[in-house]
Design brief:
The structure is a homodimer of 217-residue chains. Chain A is an alpha/beta fold and 217 residues long. In chain A, the strands form 3 sheets. Chain A has a 6-stranded parallel sheet, with helices on one face. In chain A, strands 1-2 form a two-stranded antiparallel sheet. A two-stranded antiparallel sheet of chain A has the order 5-6. In chain A, strand 3, helix 5 and strand 4 form a beta-alpha-beta unit. In chain A, 38% of the residues are buried. At the A-B interface, helix 1, helix 4, helix 5 and helix 8 of A face helix 1, helix 4, helix 5, strand 9 and helix 8 of B.
């Protein structure tokens, strides 16, 4: 199925969720599913699902529904998961280490090829089979190994200069865990996916407070 | 400023970002800012900003702009950050430990009061001044200490039953890091803020692949 141009970011952001739900269905042994049933499970409308999948040429057959395995595979291919792009982790503090250890990079379309930190306490340690390298070796590593995506788990103050250096060495995308929005100073062709954990926690704070104290401001 | 009813989730989700940007401006010594300037920094339009803030009664003065400190304080109060709701962490594996160590709970409106795990290797360890307690003590802890929010960093299979038990013991909100959508089986009054790291990484995968291989599907 050919990819159409100009697919909105909101559709793209729903694709991993489809992929995840279909993966669970597969694990449960479900071989086919109607858009109505998939919609119920995903808390979307059936027409929303049909619309989303039509952006990529449509799947599903009238009266049959979707073949779970082939739809799962097709969405994985649309996401480009099969390419296993080389990714590096910059900043092996608490969060960086947890991400390196816990994330299923293979499942998410990447191969973790390097971990970097500047702290002597961390450099030399082995995390997930990779020896943490000194940050001073990062630039040379990029020239030799051509990573295309970098995970930033470094202090906010260091984010801008690090991002600029990495872009100059061929990095095309960032998974940004710093509280700093790095995108404003980068070329628009560079993708930045921000994970603002503190924003997420504050949103939860608002909603729970609103539930507990509805009449107060 | 009185809170209006029925404020959309998209506005609410932008509030932490306003709070963060205003906090940085404060740190930089900026005392006032026009909606136009704030818009440029935040990559929003000035009218979007005025609209958002009007949901809460409006701030800003014609010709003066916003007083950074009072707007920052006001948004913090809207978010309910001053209440420091008691929060517990359930699951002290790699990610749980990193969150316990790294998050600024005070800043995000919470006080971390308990950490739980079922692994004997982790129980008894001290993380951020709190001794990790055995998961079997969790229910009794809830009855005594009344946490209102729980961070779930446990395996996906355990998420549903854990969430149900916690809700029965007074938990009103979840910060859910499991790949499982727990909300479908909970009362709608319970807030669930999902952090799907794998979805976020897959979205990045799509976008970088789209940039690198624009003509392939």
């Amino acid at each position: 199925m050919p990819k159409k141009d100009g697919i909105s970011l909101s559709v793209i952001k729903r694709l991993p969720r489809y992929y995840r739900f279909l993966g669970m269905l597969l694990q449960d042994g479900t071989t086919r599913i109607s858009s109505k049933e998939l919609a119920q499970r995903m808390k979307l409308t059936a027409s929303q699902i049909r619309q989303d999948l039509n952006c990529f040429g449509g799947f599903g057959q009238q009266g049959y529904g979707y073949n779970v395995e082939s739809l799962h595979q097709a969405i994985g291919k649309i996401l480009g998961l099969q390419r296993h792009l080389p990714i590096i982790l910059v900043g092996a503090g608490n969060l960086g280490k947890a991400i390196a250890r816990q994330m299923d990079f293979d499942e998410a379309g990447f191969e973790l090829i390097g971990i970097f930190d500047k702290s002597p306490e961390v450099v030399g340690r082995v995390i997930r089979g990779l020896t943490v390298q000194d940050a001073s070796e990062l630039e040379a590593f990029c020239i030799t190994h051509h990573p295309v995506v970098a995970i930033l788990t470094i202090p906010r103050e260091a984010a801008d200069s690090m991002a600029q250096m990495l872009v100059s060495r061929g990095i095309k995308g960032f998974w940004n865990f710093t509280t700093h929005d790095i995108s404003h100073q980068l070329d628009p062709s560079i993708t930045v996916e921000n994970v603002h954990l503190c924003d997420s926690l504050m949103t939860l704070c608002y909603q729970v407070n609103d539930q507990l104290f509805p009449d107060e401001d």
